[in-house]
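Hey,
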Amino acid sequence: MAGYELASKKVQLQETDDPIEYYFKQGWTDGLPVVPPTAEKIGAFLDAAGRSPSEILGTEPVRGRVVTVEKVAINAVMAGCRPEYFPVVLATMEAMLEPEHNLHAVTVSTMGAAPLLVINGPVVNEIGLNSGVSVFGPGHRANATIGRAIRLTIMNVTGAVPGDLDQSSLGHAGKYTWCIAEDEETSPWQALHVDRGYASSQSTVTVFPGLSPIQVTNSGGGSPEAALKGVADGMIVAGPGNAEIVVVLTPETIGHIKAGGWSKQQVAEHLWEQSRRTAGEWDEHGYPTGKPDDELVGVTTTWEGITVIVAGGKAGSFSAVIPLWGGGSNSRAVSKVIRS
């Protein structure tokens, strides 16, 4: 391990002190125990990424908090990451700090969004990311700790602590950790990162400002149309005129779609058509559109605003609809290459 000059304040505890309890008292946790970040552990993370601790990734625009590689490494250690996960964590923070993602607004809003990380490429198998059973749930260290590292960095470095800068009315479980991999092997289509202009051989992270996922049942089966009916109905919750919405289709649903020979574009076009309602119907449910009552208005402005991802367990006719903060227009999804 290389020797690093670390700029962060060092804390020396007595042998009788409990470091985990100390971190709780300082308000440096997400409510769960953390791993004490020693200089040796931080150095191992810096080695794994090949990055300088003083490198600036960006700045939180309102409070002016500077986000450095060192600060992110500290929080990645605390989250329980392994060193080989650290390049993913860094790429995620770089994506979130891009102006179009609008980090400040997303992390402080009463709407309660959380960063949804979708990982693609060779890194998925290299570090053991889960794209299958309980993809939004517990049980996989890489998924759990990478997402948690982002949350701890948001809280400890940018200052978005609940009740202070973070004013979420409800929040949701994804605000602890929300990191998934796309199931590229099951998907009959090109992967998300290829859709976004990257090579299939590249490893990437795409960050969405996700609201709470809505699980839907695809009970129709048989044809693509029947399999997608529940998804189209579930999209209605997001309201009209969104710039983007995320749909996660599980393998059982994909099986029906694949049997029908549908492309990803056909899926998105169908969902867009089937989720349209008249302006009058939207108005009745508290979503005024300002359009004539008989005009059809979509959940998204175009079919291209429906991002389709394949993930989840192979058994079960369920999928998920994930609305985005600000309708996906005030905060844009951002992708970054994961530098090995």
